[in-house]
Structure formats: C-alpha cells, structure tokens
Design goal:
Rossmann fold; 18 strands; 35% helix; binds calcium ion; 19 helices; globular; 6-stranded parallel sheet; binds ligand TZD
Length: 528
C-alpha cells in the first residue's frame, strides 16, 4: 500500500514540480524524510528569502513553484514576500507543516492556530485537509488553483502525522489531471475591439507584467507596428513586457494620476494589456483620463477588471487576445512613431558614481539577453531609461513594493534560466531585508551578480519626504554597512568599485566567472 507521502511526491513529479524551496522545522521533517533523489531542495535561511526565491523561479519558468515553511512562525516571516507574489500573479504553492492532529486542539507548541486564516488576504485559496487521505487531492487542487488565471499563491497546512498514513488508491487519478483555461474572447467581442482599434485616430498601448508572464511580448510588438502606436509600460512595473529598444517604446509611466493623464494627452484610445489600471503610488490627484480618451483594459484578473476606476475591461487570456488582434489587424497607413533619442550622456567626475554611469556601464558590458532584477528604489526611472531590455523575462521588480524581493528572486530566476546572466541591482537599504539570499547563492553555486548601490541612505524615502512636504524625519540613513564583508561572511566573492574604472574591472571579472559575485558600488545619493 502507498503512503500519503509517496503518493504526494508522485503527484508533484507527474505535475512537473521537483524543486522545493524551504526552511524546515520539526513539523516539516516527516514530509521531507526519504527525500527523493530526483527532487531538489533549495534551502533559504529566512522565509522571506524562501518565498522570494520560489517567486523568481515560478515567474521565470511560468510554472508553479512549491514552498515548504515552518508552521505559523515561518508563514509569518513570509508574509511580505507573499504580498509581492500576490501582486505579481505568481503561481506559488505555499505549504506549512502543522502539529500532529492529536495535539492541534490543545495548541501544543508549533500549532498553526487557525492556519487557514493566517495567510489571508494574500492567497487565492487556503486549506487544511480534513483527513490524511485528503492530502493528495488538496495538493492537486492547490497546484491547479495556483496556476489558473489570474495565477497566484495558495496555502496548504498539513498536520505532520498525515504523511505516514495510507493513501486512498483512487488518488492516482490526480497524477495526470490537466486543468486548462480557455480564455480567447468570443468573436463579437474581438471584432468590436478590432473595430475600435481601426477607427481610433491616435491610439496608445499600455502594457503590464502579465504580457511578459505569458511571453506575448512579440505579439505586442506586431500589434504596435501594425497600429503604428506608441507603447508605454504601466506604472510600478514588476516586469518588462516590450523591447525597450523598439521605435514604438515610450518608457515607463510614472505612478501618479495627473502625470499619467498628462503623458497620454491627445490619445483617443488607451489600450491596456495585462496590468491593473493603474498601480498608482504617489498621490497626484487629477483626471484619471485625458480629455476625449476612452480606455479598454484586457486583463486575466477579474478583480483588476472590477476595481479599475475608469474605462472598460475584458477578462481574457492576454497572450491569445494579443495574438488574435495582432494577426487580424491590417497594418494602418500612417507613420511609425519616431524612436526616442538616446538618453543624454553624463559627465562622471571623481568620487561616488552617478547612477547613470552605473547603468550605462552595465548596459555596455552585460550580455544583450541579461536578466535584471531591480530593488534600487530611487534609480528605477534612470534604469528604465538606460538599460536595454529586449527579450521576454528580462526584468523583475517587487510587485507590491515590498523590499527583500529582488535578492532572493535573483537566485530563483538564475536557477530557472541557467543560460542567461542574472544581474540584481540592489540599494544599500533594500539589500538588508533578504541578505541571507547570498548564502543560498554561494552554497548552491548560483552564478548571479549582485550590484549594491551604496549611497548610504533610503534615497526614495528622501524623495518621498519632499513629495509629502514633511521635514526632519528620523531613520532615513543607513551608513556604515560593509556589504563586501557580509558577502564574504556568507561565502561569496565580493568586489568593491569606487570609480567607473573599478566598476568596469569588477564587472569584467564577475561576468567571466561562473559563480555568484557581489559588487559594492559607491554611488551618489539623490540630490547630493
Ligand atoms: N519595508 C519594506 C518591506 N518595504 C518597503 N517598501 C519599505 C520598507 C519602505 N521603503 C521604500 O518603499 S523605498 C525604501 C524603503 C525603506 C528605501 C530603500 O532604499 P535603498 O534604495 O537604499 O534600497 P535608494 O535608491 O537609496 O532609495
Ligand atoms: Ca540607498
């Protein structure tokens, strides 16, 4: 007879999930015992790191990742990372070990009290099986729930004595189940959308992360070229859905209501794919839309569609819809948008590096298909102006703005994409939330490059203090952190760059090595 343990591993195997990201405790040991040799266990030293790595891995593969956390405490440590995964539509199956069933009621140490409520509202579905025999079916349900549009995290709490119980033989029906979503809009809806596109005088396209998630970037290019429309990336972008070197590319929209309207002025049709409308940040009141503009958003997420404060929405498969529109649209007879001029060159003097210099140097030296993770908050606009990103899956950023994402996600993305160089650009504030990701990178030999932008301050908060008109705020500086010492302490090679020449040398060395490297770069603080 088969145990719940071996049947569940067989289910995971058949569903293509053989990498488990985790941080174990006593409740999890019975799940991890007799760990199958065809599975990999990636250990993170903090649960924010575990979920961040799994998030990057899932996003880069476009498939669900499995996470194993320790009861309530491990889940609690992971909540910030879960906020990012929720907002980026990352398919994550988060499991946590529960106390043995006989001791849940007395709330023995390590009981996950009301486990199902704990991760809410950051999961699509949360469950604790009613019996051991239900575990495989709950795992199967979790996999399909996480993957269906809009994808997202799910949570499964499993009492540790369940794993050794005998499985229901009928659970074998779960092994090969396929659950598919068929999401192309109907003919009438598609034709109406096409008619609107053709009749628009001056349409503009705004693309969001879900375009990149389904790798529909090339369909977006075809659509933009046939429509001769400029393309913006939706604000607070967690991914790069369009090649930034393309003539139609206009840049990253800023995250303010009035500013967006100003930038989109003159357009009569705003066509949004795969983004919430919109992920604003700073409060910049004004009209949601420029005068005379109509907005239509195509999204895979019912909640995004329902909560948008303006425009129409179509809930559909982003990739299939973009492809159908791109293929059906006859190229329109008007000039292509002119390519944006290259950003002005900067004069780098002696002393700390300008962020512009760092990005120009990276752009020149990194492979064309490099993958960037960004958590350098005050330099995001500069990054988008100066780094060329052309292929799908070239950029990742914390979708909820929760710091501590990019360092571990870089490890997960590099594990998923061994043929491409991952480069994480991390602020000296942000680097501390998930610093132990460096240990996993070093110990598993994951050859990502971590560039630390050391300006000694929470630069973005200094900027925000200006936006809000607040003065004399404490706690905005982070002096005196030696990131090379931290990296070396976690077993990673570290280099320091205090001039452009040293940055060039460090990058050359790091790019030539097949191991993780941290480069600490002295940079100029914003407004300094
Ligand atoms: N804590 C968490 C988990 N997420 C956050 N977003 C913040 C705190 C608040 N925060 C920001 O939104 S930006 C920022 C903080 C602390 C400063 C990050 O500083 P940095 O980058 O050094 O990483 P810059 O370029 O100096 O801004
Ligand atoms: Ca900083």
């Amino acid at each position: 007879m088969t145990t719940v343990h071996s049947l569940t591993y067989e289910l995971l195997r058949r569903q293509g999930i053989t990498t488990i990201f985790g941080n174990p405790g006593s409740n999890e040991l019975p799940f991890l015992q007799d760990f199958p040799s065809d599975f990999s266990y990636i250990l993170g030293l903090h649960e924010g790191v575990v979920v961040g790595m799994a998030d990057g891995f899932a996003q880069a593969r476009g498939k669900p990742s499995l996470v194993n956390l320790h009861s309530a405490a491990g889940t609690g440590n992971a909540m910030g990372a879960l906020a990012n995964a929720w907002n980026s539509h990352t398919p994550l199956i988060v499991t946590a070990g529960q106390q043995t069933r006989a001791m849940i009621g007395v709330e023995a140490l390590l009981t996950n009290v009301d486990a199902v409520s704990l991760p809410r509202p950051l999961v699509k579905w949360s469950y604790e099986p009613a019996s051991a025999q239900e575990v495989p079916q709950a795992m199967s349900r979790a996999i399909h729930m996480a993957s269906m549009p809009a994808p997202g995290p799910v949570y499964l709490s499993v009492p540790y004595n369940d794993w050794s119980a005998l499985a229901d033989p009928q659970s074998a029906y779960l092994f090969e189940r396929k659950v598919e979503s068929a999401g192309l809009p109907g003919e009438a809806c598609l034709q109406a959308l096409l008619d609107r596109l053709v009749s628009a005088r001056n349409p503009v396209i705004v693309l969001g992360p879900d375009v990149d998630a389904v790798k529909a970037n090339q369909h977006a290019v075809t659509l933009a070229e046939r429509l001769k429309a400029p393309v913006w990336v939706a604000p607070s972008a967690p991914r790069c859905p369009f090649p930034t070197t393309h003539a139609c590319f206009r840049g990253l929209l800023p995250a303010g209501i009035a500013t967006i309207s100003r930038l989109l002025e003159g357009h009569d049709l705003i066509l949004v794919f795969g983004a919430p409308v919109f992920r604003y940040h700073q409060y910049d009141p004004g009209d949601y839309l420029p005068a005379g503009a109509h907005l239509i958003a195509v999204t895979c997420d019912v909640q995004e569609a329902a909560r948008a404060p303006m425009g129409d929405a179509i809930v559909a498969d982003i990739g299939l819809t973009l492809q159908a529109l791109a293929e059906r649209l006859e190229p329109l007879d008007r000039p292509m948008p002119a390519r944006l001029p290259a950003p002005a060159s900067v004069r780098q003097g002696p002393g700390p590096l300008l962020p512009e210099t760092v990005f120009d140097t990276l752009n020149e030296m990194a492979p064309r298909d490099a993958i960037y993770l960004n958590e350098s908050t005050s330099t995001t606009a500069t990054l988008w102006q100066r780094l060329n990103m052309e292929q799908p899956g070239s950029y990742y950023f914390a979708a909820a703005g929760g710091l501590g994402f990019a360092m571990p996600a870089a490890v997960g993305v590099q594990l998923a994409e061994p043929a491409r160089q991952v480069i994480a650009v991390i602020g000296d504030g942000s680097a501390n939330y998930s610093i132990s990701a460096l240990w996993t990178a070093a110990n598993y030999g994951v050859p990502a490059i971590f560039v630390i932008m050391k300006n000694g301050t929470y630069g973005a908060l200094r900027w925000f203090a200006g936006v809000l008109g607040v003065e004399d705020v404490p706690g905005l500086d982070v002096p005196g952190i030696d990131f090379c010492a931290l990296a070396t302490g976690y077993g990673m090679r570290a280099l320091r760059a205090e001039s452009q020449g040293e940055l060039v040398d460090a990058l050359r060395e790091a790019l030539a090595l097949d191991e993780p490297v941290l480069i600490e770069v002295l940079t100029l603080a914003p407004g300094a």
